[in-house]
Amino acid sequence: MTSWLRPATLDELLDARAGGATLVGGGVGLCSAAFPGALTGALIDARAVLGGQVGGTHAGALATLATLAATPGVPAAIRRAAAATANPGVRRRITVGGVLGWRSPLADLPAALDVLDAQVRVAVQAGTAPTLVPLRALYGPEPPSVILDVHWAPATASSYRRAAGRPGPAPLTIGLAGVRRDGDIRLVASGAADTLLAFTPDRIPAEAELRNDARASARHRRRLLDRLLEQVIDDLEASP
Q1: Cα separation of 139 and 101, whole Å?
Q2: Is residue 113 a contact partner of residue 122, using CB atoms and an 8 Å limit?
Q3: Average pLDDT in the 57-76 region?
Q4: Chain-wide mean pLDDT for the chain?
Q5: Could you give the CA distance from residue 221 to residue 224 in angstroms, rounded to a whole number?
Q6: Contacts of 180 (CB under 8 A, 6+ apart)
Q7: pTM score, two decimals?
Q8: Which phi and psi (to 5°) does residue 201 adopt?
């Protein structure tokens, strides 16, 4: 039997999570492997606590990917990664917090956020203040209980490109985000390894460093990475 909890404060939400309730919207990725196959037990409606606002350098956990992709002032890499995820119907429902809470190395958005030095505000326990942690801290052995929002550095030149097994809204094979600052280019790949992979154009990961699975071999991913790198650098060079 399913019951809905509607906490009015963050502490109430954290207590519900500590009691085993599932956070829906902002805590799990809708239409992803993180979403329970059967929604039973206690579910948390977090809309009274978590926000969905989007600005040029931040987004609330309940912000949808459709909103993120359409907000002026958000860096191009983030808007492109959000727009590349799934199909329009899913993007209107899946949230930023859901994608980050999924913690999948095959998601589009984390690479675009990471290349822009993203930090995530998280709350772990009732009665303690939320803290800002690097986005990569989400991929540790003990993920935070509740993601509140994400903040990133502004960028005038950024890009995101992806490759998938088929045209259209297909699951990611490999994605590449890039940013140019003070003449230097920084890159972060998703889908390339078991976690986000950061590198620079003069130190491209070798085939042995790349993921080898049923979706694509490491050799194929290395070829895709070369192609995406050319596209991202072209985008950055064309930016003001």
Answers
A1: 9
A2: no
A3: 96
A4: 90
A5: 5
A6: 155, 157, 158, 236, 239
A7: 0.92
A8: -60, -25
